[in-house]
């Protein structure tokens, strides 16, 4: 009797799963879902994608070993020059509050010159994890987000330089930013 | 013979024109970028600053490097000793 019940309900579960799969594939091929960057995701989709991203990054970034010398001046200077060349258009500066990229990209790139949680994600004050996460994101990028992987052409040390600069960026004034990020003879050879 | 001469002149002229299009000062792209302005440091209120912070130390180093390179002859400042510390970032 129990086996008959199992078969009875199992059959309907399989049918339901099959219909759901067919419906999902049909929805994908229908083209109904808006893909324009100027049409935000609905709340559920946004939550799902954000959670997927953050959980994935947390899994792979939590074991990254952070160098002990992130507070040295040479890392700040090298990282600052690279940030200004490669990152400032999207992630802004103390004197630049918006750009075509921040207005047009979805999700909008976080303003790394501000001392606030990125996209509302609280790292619970865990500065070590923040640095691990930033390193991983700079190195590997994020799929379908506009954030490129900088690993091709940039070794780990250069990426750590940028993490070191990101650590200080929110506290910089526009004048301090100008001095720290201008390429001088000491950082030449890294131009893009 | 005339055709060969004309072809040679045309090819040579085209090649010369192409080479001229790239004959610019390699430093020109750097000159077009923003220049370091260490006078901004002079305008800051140093009495309120902690000069031992990494940011201050980096700013001092940045401006000292620039001042030292400005004093050197141009032939020495390219890849000079101040650049050695941060040189070696090869792609």
Strand content of chain A: under 5%
What is the H-and-E element order of chain B?
Answer: HHHHHH
Number of helical stretches of at least 4 residues of chain A: 8
Report the β-strand fraction of chain B as a percent range: under 5%
Note down, in words, how this protein is organized.
The complex is a heterodimer of chains A (192) and B (91). Chain A is elongated. Chain A has helices spanning 2-30, 43-61, 73-86, 88-91, 100-104, 127-140, 156-168, 174-181. Chain A is an all-alpha fold and 192 residues long. The mean pLDDT of chain A is 90. The relative contact order of chain A is 0.14. Chain B is mainly α and 91 residues long. Chain B has six helices and no strands. Chain B has helices at 2-22, 28-32, 39-42, 54-71, 74-77, 81-84.
Record the SSE blueprint.
The complex is a heterodimer of chains A (192) and B (91).
Chain A: H1 2-30, H2 43-61, H3 73-86, H4 88-91, H5 100-104, H6 127-140, H7 156-168, H8 174-181
Chain B: H1 2-22, H2 28-32, H3 39-42, H4 54-71, H5 74-77, H6 81-84
Give a concise summary.
Chain A has 192 residues and is mainly α.
Output the keywords.
heterodimer, A: 192 residues, mainly alpha, 8 helices, 0% strand, elongated, B: 91 residues, 6 helices, rod-shaped, disordered C terminus
């Amino acid at each position: 009797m129990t086996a008959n019940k199992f078969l009875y309900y199992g059959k309907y579960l399989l049918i339901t799963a099959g219909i759901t799969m067919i419906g999902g594939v049909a929805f994908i091929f229908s083209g109904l879902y808006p893909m324009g960057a100027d049409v935000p995701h609905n709340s559920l989709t946004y939550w799902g994608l954000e959670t997927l991203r953050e959980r994935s990054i947390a899994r792979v970034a939590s074991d990254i070993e952070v160098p002990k010398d992130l507070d040295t001046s040479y890392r700040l200077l090298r990282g600052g020059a690279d940030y200004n060349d490669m990152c400032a258009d999207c992630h802004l500066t103390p004197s630049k509050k918006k750009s075509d990229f921040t207005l047009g990209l979805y999700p909008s790139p976080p303003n790394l010159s501000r001392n606030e949680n990125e996209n509302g994600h609280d790292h619970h004050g865990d500065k070590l994890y923040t640095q691990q996460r930033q390193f991983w994101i700079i190195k590997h990028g994020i799929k379908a987000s506009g954030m490129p992987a900088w690993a091709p052409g940039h070794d780990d040390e250069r990426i750590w330089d940028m993490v070191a600069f990101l650590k200080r960026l929110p506290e910089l004034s526009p004048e301090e930013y100008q001095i720290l990020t201008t390429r001088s003879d000491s950082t030449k050879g890294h131009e893009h | 013979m005339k055709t060969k001469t004309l072809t040679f002149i045309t090819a040579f002229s085209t090649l010369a024109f192409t080479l001229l299009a790239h004959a610019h000062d390699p430093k020109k792209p750097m000159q077009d970028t923003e220049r370091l302005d260490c006078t901004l440091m002079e305008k800051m209120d140093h009495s309120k600053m902690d000069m031992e912070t990494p940011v201050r130390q980096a700013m001092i180093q940045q401006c000292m490097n620039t001042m030292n390179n400005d004093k050197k002859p141009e032939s020495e400042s390219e890849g000079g000793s101040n650049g050695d510390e941060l040189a070696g970032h090869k792609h």
